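Q: What structure does this chain adopt?
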Amino acid sequence: MASTRRLAAILAADVAGFTSLIEADLGGTLRAWKAIRRDLVDPTIEAHNGRLLKTSGDLLLVEFSNVVEALRCATDLQKTVVEHNRNLPAGKRIEFGSAFIRGMWSFRRLSLRRWGDYCYRTRRRPGLGH
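A:
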């Protein structure tokens, strides 16, 4: 079986303080996150020609054909979520805590589990991602 090879920019983003939000209000946080995904995140990804590769709790992995679209999407996501949160109390806001882009990643078969592990490690230990 022939493997495919392509270049992609991968955006990884997660929600700041998601565990604390879940501990304070599990049902409300999950409803809010689902609504933000449906109404803000997914349409923004689509508008920038992104492809959602994986979600895991509050983690999003999104593939783009180039770094420019990945950066534009990340910027638009931040702006949209900030606007959405404007009238919400601090303890109810869903905000992206970190987002980073792995520019022009070349892969034959992307192991989403291994990529997710990489993202987790680089977020927890920023020196590993540079």
